[in-house]
Amino acid sequence: MANNTSGDPHETHAPSVRTFLLADVRGYTRYSDERGDEAASALARRFADIVHQAVQASGGELVEVRGDEALCVFGSAREATWAAVELQRRFREKLSGEPALPLPVGIGMDAGEAVATEGGYKGRALNVAARLCSLAGPGAILASETVALLAGRDDRARYAPRRPTRMKGIAAPVRFVEVVPQVELPPLPVAARPRREVRRRRALVMAVALALIAAVLAAILILRRDDSGGVVVPPNSVALIDPSSNRIVDSIRVGDSPGPIDAATGALWVLNRNNRTLTKIDPRTREVVDTVGLGTGPANMSAGASGVWVTDVCGQTLLRIDPRRGRTQRVALNPQSFFEGPGYFRYCAVNADAGPIWAASVSPASLVRVDVDPASGTAAPGLAVPVPGHHAYGIAYPVGGASAIAVDNQAVWAVDYEGGVVRRVDPAKGKIVGVVNVGEGPVAAAAGDGFVWVVNQNEDSVSLIEARTNSVRKTLSVGDVPTAVGLGEGAVWVANSGDGTVSRIDPETNEVVATISIGNRPQGIIVAQGLVWVTVRKA
Fold this sequence. Notes:
Blueprint: E1 16-25, H1 28-35, H2 37-57, E2 61-66, E3 69-74, H3 77-92, E4 94-95, E5 98-99, E6 105-117, E7 120-122, H4 124-135, E8 141-144, H5 145-151, E9 157-167, E10 170-181, H6 195-218, E11 224-225, E12 231-232, E13 237-242, E14 247-253, E15 258-264, E16 267-272, E17 277-282, E18 287-293, E19 298-304, E20 307-312, E21 317-322, E22 327-332, E23 350-351, E24 357-362, E25 365-372, E26 379-386, E27 390-391, E28 398-399, E29 404-407, E30 412-416, E31 421-426, E32 431-437, E33 442-448, E34 451-456, E35 461-466, E36 471-477, E37 482-488, E38 491-496, E39 501-506, E40 511-517, E41 521-528, E42 531-537
Parallel strand pairs: 6-8
Antiparallel strand pairs: 1-3, 1-6, 2-3, 4-5, 6-7, 8-10, 9-10, 11-12, 13-14, 13-42, 15-16, 16-17, 17-18, 19-20, 20-21, 21-22, 23-24, 24-25, 25-26, 27-28, 29-30, 30-31, 31-32, 33-34, 34-35, 35-36, 37-38, 38-39, 39-40, 41-42
Helix pairs in contact: 1-2, 2-3, 3-5
């Protein structure tokens, strides 16, 4: 859509700050295949009408509609945010008992300088908005940090920061938030499938079930291979790596979007964030033996002799699952409610590996020791160690400085994602006794043998801290977007979610000696029972 008014089709306007909103209908191609071109065209017209009306009412401009995708531009970030919330409401509202749009829509937004050209705009903000739109789940609104800062506080929506993400064509990781409407929206639509599709899917399900039964009876593991012959571990599973050969030898299906994994009390525990469950695996039989529902939105998890400890997304409470006593307990870390959202995984650290449990409390910013009464098994907050706080994204979300916690027999090591440091805490004195600068965006750590290995996600590296000197001995490059680190079997293991690999580091030479392809995105990693266990989600 032209913004040029001079009559010269090749003229462009000077750059100015604009906010771009891209909306995309999820599942449009399949809908078209199943329902036919006429139904798909009707859906596209309805989509365009809703976008045009809502954007115009919010003071924006509908630049272009391409079937199932719309590009809009606003002079105000706040107006764009209002429009995004209004769009999600209008897409879902019922008309004659049916949703206005039978398919959900994802929205992405960014603000920045852009040049108006014939038929549209050019600029980095437009590219970021497009990337965020593709990243947004059905019914979600993702906005860059810039949009959140420009829009400021508003009673129509709040901002839940998400983990910075690398995006194609953009050098630095992009910091963004999820825009969460403060008003209740209608439920997301569920498009009914044609009967022929239902029959076809039932037949497919039956065929798959029979194939699985045959595979189990034959005790044969089938791992798909990519075009180069590498193994592709299926998403929503745990991959098992044999450290003697650096080969994947098995995979176990778990819940939706598995993340942290830990070992304790003769079992492996996996936190599945999307369906809010814990999966218990017997490492001897390599079978799932239990699934525990968590209820609230889980963020992180650690397992130890006292049970499995799960933090919520707000960093307010710990949920303790005690499999030996057959009970659960919720432990309040602080009484305040300050933020919510999946982006706060990095501020909800917990470690139960040895002795006392340590957790990150974010308001006030502190490390809290949780004590368990050996007689009653009851847990309660104990010693609190204040740590420096700050404000995420410059808006009113106070957060603590602990994205991960590692514990050894010398200290508690608190990793600060925003500050790029690791704080050494003396558990006896209850205070910080050292601060070590590491890389950019540290998200995970593991301690042992007088060293602490720290994963720096935003610069694809691992820093090796020598506990004796409180300094970084070496920083070495690993794979793309590392997320977790584990120690064991004579090696340091790093899960790299960006390129779907696991890096093996030799602690004697402090060099990467092997790179193991996973195929999908590895998330958590633990070494137990002579194997390396890696959680894997969809790429």
